[in-house]
Write a structure and sequence with these properties.
Two copies of one chain form a homodimer.
Chain A: E1 3-8, H1 10-13, H2 20-31, E2 36-42, H3 46-59, E3 62-66, H4 77-85, E4 89-91, H5 93-105, E5 119-121, E6 125-127, E7 136-141, E8 144-149, H6 153-172, E9 177-186, H7 190-196, E10 209-216, E11 219-228, H8 231-249, E12 253-256, H9 261-271, E13 276-280, H10 286-291, E14 301-306, H11 310-316, H12 321-325, H13 335-349, E15 353-361, E16 371-379, E17 384-392, H14 395-414, E18 426-427
Parallel strand pairs in A: 1-2, 1-3, 3-8, 13-14, 13-15
Antiparallel strand pairs in A: 4-5, 6-7, 7-8, 9-11, 9-12, 10-11, 15-16, 16-17, 17-18
Chain lengths: 430, 430
C-alpha cells in the first residue's frame, strides 16, 4: 500500500518548528508494518495545498494530512480538502455541540471562530479527537483515502494510534493483530547489534517477526515487530525470538518496552529501601538531573554533588589526588581514586550507596578526537565496584557517554551483574 | 524566487532521524530574506527520487537536495541527477585526488567505494566541501538550478552558509549584503514581544529591516534581518531599530548574537574573579549541568548540590524549614528560607556567591495544571537578593522554567539589575 504524508503550516515550512510530527507518524507506521513512501511539506497557501493534495491523490492509496484544522484564518485544510474532492463544506452539528460542551466544561463560552472547526467537507467521515477541538476526518480524493489530523502533537498521537492505524491496517489487508517488542541497551553499536542478532527472525515462522533498530546515542533500541492472528498467536511467535535476543544481548539490555534506565535504577533502589548519593565532575549534574526530578525520587536520592574539578573533588573529601591515585605522584586518574571518593561521599551523606563518576578530559579546543578517561565507582557498606574506560569523540560525546555509563553501571551493580564489560564506544588507552 | 528542498534517505523517510537538516536550511534561508515554498522527502528509491526531481524542476527556480552523496550503494543523488538532466556521470579527477589526500592525511588508504563520490553529472559545477568527502555540486534540471548537499549536518551547514546562500542571493537578485541581529530574552512570550515591538521596523527606511521571532521555551529569540548595499549601510539602517529594541525589551535581554545565558553568567563571574555554588531541589542538577561542563567553568563553579526534598535541603544546612520559613510552622515555602539556604551554602563551600533554587511542587499525577512555587535567592558576602514566583503547566514546564529563572536572576544580579520583574510565565498565587 502506497502511503504519503502531507505536513502543512508556515511554522513547519519555515523551520520555526522542527517537524517531529512527521518522524513520529512514520516511525509509528513502521512499528505496525506500514511504510510511508513520500512526504510533502507546504505552507498555509491555498495554491500549494491544493496542488499537494492533487499530486498525492494521483500516487497514493492513503494520505495522512497533518495540521491546518485550527480555528484561525490560516487553517485551510477543510476548505482545500473540499475543493480537491469537489464537494462543499457543511456544518457538522454533532461536532459543534461537542465543542460547545468542551468550552462549557471549562467555564467558558465558545469563541465564534471555533465554529469553523465543525465545517467539514460533505460526506467526510468524522475521526474522533477526544483531547481537543480540532475534528479529524477522512474522505476520498482521487484514488486515495485522505486522513486529516491536528497539528498539536498530543492530539495527533492519540488520533493516529486509536483511529488511523486500525483503519490503515484494515485498508492494507494486513492482519490487524500486531505487536512491537522493544529492548533498550547501552554499549553495543547498531551494526554490532545487527551482527549479534543475525538470524533471530528465522526463529519465528514465515517472516512474522521483523527486526529493526533505532540508535540514539548513547542508547540503542532493538525492535521486534510481530504480526499474527491475535495476541496469543503473537506471543507464541515472539517467545523464541524474544528469548534469543535476551540471550545474545545479555547484560547489555537495560530496560524493555516503556521502561527507562532511570526508572529501572530508581525501582531497584526503592525495592531494597536504599538511598543514593552521587558525585559528578565533568558530567556536571546530568546524572542527578536524569533521576532526581522523577516521581518518588525525593525519598531515594539523598544528595547530588557536582564538583567540576577532579582535584577539588578529591580535596573536598579529604583526599590528596596524587597519593590517593597511584602513589606515584603523577596524578593519573585511577579506579582507586573513584572508589575513595564514592566511599567518602556515602559516609558523609549517610546514603546506602554512592556513585562517583570522575573524568579526566583531554585538554585543548573541542574537536572530534578529544577524549576523556572515566573512572567510576559504586560504594556500599560492604563493597566497592569500579571501572575505568576511555571514550573519544569530542566533549559532548564523552559527557553523554559518561552519564549513561554511570547510570548503567549502577543498574548492573543493583542487578548483581559485572560492572565492567567492554563497550563499543570505549577505546583502549594508547 | 521559488525555492524547494528535497530531503532524501530512508532514515529520514522512516522517521529514524528527525529531519533537523530541513528546519536548519529553511531557517537559515529565512534569515537571509529567502523563503522555501515546498519540501519533499523521499527514500533511497530511484523511481521516487527521479519523480521528485522532475516535479520540483517544473515548479522551482532553485532546488536544494540534501543527502545521498555518500559512498554506499544506497546513495543515489548523483546518478538520479544525471538521469534527470539527461547527461552521463563523469569522474572528477580533481575531487578524486582531494579525497585521496584526505585519507592520506589520516594515515589511511582510500577505500575503493569512495571513488563513487567523485562521479558527477557531466557539466556540473563543483561546490566545495572542506570538511568531508561528499562533493557538493550544482546543475540545471528543467527550469531550476539544483544544488546537491551532503546529509551530514556539519558538512551541510558549512556548505549552505559559505557556498549556497551567496549563489541563491545572487540568483534572486536581492542585494547581497544582509545581516541578522538576534536578541535572546527570558520572561516575555512571543505575542507580548510582538506587541512591545510594534512599529520598530519603521525606524529603518524602505522596509530594509524585518522583525521575526523564534520561541523555544523558556527563551525567546527576537530577530532583525537587515538588507543593505554593504555592511556600513546595514549598520546605519540597523542602529536606530537595534537601540529601540534594547530600550523596549530592557532588562529582559539576556544575551545577543551568538552569546548564551550560561556564557554571560560565567563571564560575569570570571570578570569579578568570583566563584559560585548552587543548591537545587526539583531542578535536580539541571542548573549546574548548564554551566559546569563549559570551558573555564572548573575555576568558577565551586560546588553544585542537589537535594530533591526541600525539607532535607533545609535540614542539611542546619535549618528547620518551618521555623526558617515564616515562623508559623505551616511550612509554606518563603523567600527567607531560600535566602537562609543560599547564605549557608556560600559559607559552607567558601564560594563568593551562592544561588539556591527551592521549589514546592503541587502534588498529584502530572497534568497541564500542575504548578510549582519557586523561591530563589542569591547570597554574597554583603547582601542577599531573592524572588518568589509561581509557574503552572506540568512538571517539566515548571522545572525548565525554574532552571532558566535561576540562571537569569543570577545574570540580573551580576549586572546590577532587579532580580524581580514580573514575567509572562508566572501566575499570581490564588
Amino acid at each position: 500500500m502506497h502511503i504519503e504524508v502531507i505536513c502543512t503550516g508556515d511554522e513547519v515550512l519555515t523551520g520555526k518548528i522542527v517537524n517531529t510530527n512527521f518522524s513520529y507518524i512514520s516511525q509509528k507506521l513502521e512499528d505496525f508494518g506500514l511504510s510511508v513512501q513520500w512526504e510533502t511539506t507546504v505552507g498555509d497557501d491555498r495554491g500549494n495545498l491544493l496542488l499537494a493534495f492533487r499530486l498525492a491523490a494521483e500516487r497514493a492509496d492513503a494520505v495522512i494530512v497533518n495540521g491546518g484544522l485550527g480555528p484561525t484564518v490560516d487553517d485551510l485544510s477543510q476548505e482545500i480538502a473540499a475543493r480537491a474532492a469537489g464537494v462543499d463544506l457543511a456544518l457538522n452539528e454533532e461536532w459543534l455541540s461537542r465543542m460547545e460542551d468542551y468550552f462549557a466544561k471549562r467555564g467558558r463560552v465558545m469563541p465564534p471562530n471555533n465554529r469553523k472547526q465543525a465545517m467539514l467537507p460533505a460526506g467526510a467521515e468524522v475521526i474522533d479527537n477526544p483531547v481537543g477541538t480540532a475534528c479529524g476526518f477522512a474522505l476520498n480524493i482521487g484514488r486515495a483515502r485522505f486522513f486529516f489530523t491536528p497539528g498539536v502533537p498530543r492530539e495527533l498521537r492519540r488520533m493516529l494510534e486509536d483511529q488511523l492505524i486500525p483503519r490503515l491496517l484494515a485498508k492494507s489487508g494486513l492482519q490487524t493483530a500486531i505487536f512491537l517488542k522493544r529492548f533498550h541497551s547501552y554499549g553495543i553499536g547498531e551494526s554490532h547489534a545487527d551482527a549479534l542478532l543475525a538470524g533471530v527472525e528465522a526463529l519465528a515462522p514465515d517472516g512474522s517477526v521483523k527486526l529493526g533498530f533505532r540508535a540514539h546515542y548513547p542508547q540503542l533500541e532493538t525492535k521486534l515487530t510481530v504480526r499474527g492472528k491475535d495476541m496469543d498467536d503473537i506471543q507464541n511467535k515472539l517467545a523464541p525470538v524474544e528469548q534469543e535476543v535476551r540471550r545474545r544481548l545479555g547484560n547489555f539490555i537495560l530496560a524493555e518496552g516503556d521502561q527507562t534506565l532511570e526508572r529501572v535504577v530508581l525501582d531497584a533502589l526503592g525495592d531494597r529501601h536504599a538511598s543514593l548519593s552521587l558525585v559528578e565532575t565533568f558530567t556536571s549534574g546530568q546524572i542527578a538531573a536524569r533521576l532526581a526530578h522523577l516521581p518518588g525520587a525525593g525519598k531515594i536520592i539523598r544528595r547530588g554533588i557536582v564538583i567540576p574539578d577532579v582535584s577539588d573533588a578529591c580535596a573536598v573529601i579529604g583526599l590528596d589526588r596524587a597519593v590517593a591515585a597511584d602513589g606515584t605522584g603523577a596524578g593519573e586518574l585511577t579506579r582507586e581514586t573513584a572508589e575513595a571518593v564514592a566511599r567518602a561521599a556515602r559516609q558523609q551523606t549517610g546514603a546506602t550507596l554512592a556513585l562517583a563518576v570522575l573524568i579526566d578530559l583531554d585538554e585543548g579546543t573541542d574537536r572530534i578526537d578529544i577524549g576523556g578517561t572515566i573512572c567510576l565507582a559504586i560504594a556500599s557498606e560492604h563493597d566497592t565496584a569500579s571501572r575505568r574506560s576511555r571514550i573519544v569523540g569530542g566533549r559532548d560525546w564523552v559527557r553523554l557517554g559518561a552519564v549513561e555509563m554511570g547510570l548503567d553501571c549502577l543498574r548492573r551493580y543493583l542487578q548483581g551483574l559485572p560492572v565492567y564489560e567492554r563497550i563499543d564506544f570505549e577505546i583502549d588507552r594508547p
